[in-house]
Structures are given as structure tokens and as C-alpha cells.
Design brief:
71 residues, elongated, 3 helices, mainly alpha
């Protein structure tokens, strides 16, 4: 299964308690947004992450691979 943690069991239980499908959708959206927010906070604190714009990725990968081939 996609989710198999204890936290997902809490998600499932709370979503099943929703009164209708619209309330369940809103609950999923809200919880997903908060999870993404916590993840981004964690990533920002990690000083080893190099943030790139999408158009910078190919040249970054090329330069990293080139430097590895010199080893």
C-alpha cells in the first residue's frame, strides 16, 4: 500500500469521520498542505541542500558528473 504508517492510520480514521466527500477533500487538502509546509521548513534548515531553479538542473548534473569522472 501507498501509506502504511501509524500516521496514515490516523489520517484514515479522521477522514472516515468526515460527513461527506467535500469535507473529506477539504481535510485531505488541509493535511497535505501542512505536511508540505513542515517538509519545506525541514529542507530549508538543512545547509547541505543546494537549491536550484529548474533550468539549472541539467548543467548542475553535468558538472557534478564531470567532477566525479576526474576522481
Amino acid at each position: 500500500p501507498l501509506y502504511s504508517s501509524a500516521a496514515s492510520d490516523v489520517y484514515k480514521r479522521q477522514i472516515l469521520e468526515c460527513k461527506n466527500i467535500e469535507e473529506a477533500k477539504a481535510e485531505i487538502f488541509y493535511r497535505d498542505w501542512h505536511l508540505a509546509k513542515r517538509q519545506m521548513t525541514w529542507f530549508r534548515r538543512n545547509k547541505n541542500i543546494e537549491w536550484l531553479e529548474l533550468n539549472q538542473v541539467p548543467s548542475y548534473i553535468y558538472s557534478r558528473m564531470a567532477s566525479l569522472s576526474k576522481i
